[in-house]
């Protein structure tokens, strides 16, 4: 007897339950965009390299193109459509607008979801690759431009809005930065 290739699943997205049958190969990204019409989450590379499809799963960042929809059942998923509080933008969204943290806007939903994760991860004391003192007792490092750009380096911006993105994340996190060039910008310049 052939094994089933589809399953009926229920996804919890932005506080609402969505029940749908899916082919087992369907990614969370395609389920969001093609099946549930939640097109705020963008498809860039579709292979985990650009960050355009970033969502939050149980509050942690995840690239939805590398997640199977069937494996997302039971998780709390937040997409860009669920970030604002009604008509009131989230402070991260407002900072991106106020500080021009985008140009074409294609990468922006992923950048904002990633920024939400960054702020939470930093507050929880997670170090990054550029954190000098990673001892737990050292506590969270200062959220410098270097820290922010490293922590956001999984999100590419083909418009090169990196300096503004870093400033926007810093403002949303309540810190100031010097607006220096970012790690991702430097990597792309060197490539
Ligand atoms: S579309 Fe998922 S990382 Fe690029
Ligand atoms: S604003 Fe255009 S890709 Fe980032």
Automatic annotation (TrEMBL):
2Fe-2S ferredoxin-type domain boundaries: 7-83
- Supply the alphabetized keyword list: Iron, Metal-binding, Oxidoreductase
Q: Keyword Membrane on this protein?
A: no
What is this protein called in UniProt? Answer: (2Fe-2S)-binding protein
Q: Quote the Pfam families the UniProt record gives.
A: Fer2 (PF00111), Fer2_2 (PF01799)
Q: Which PROSITE patterns match?
A: 2FE2S_FER_1, 2FE2S_FER_2
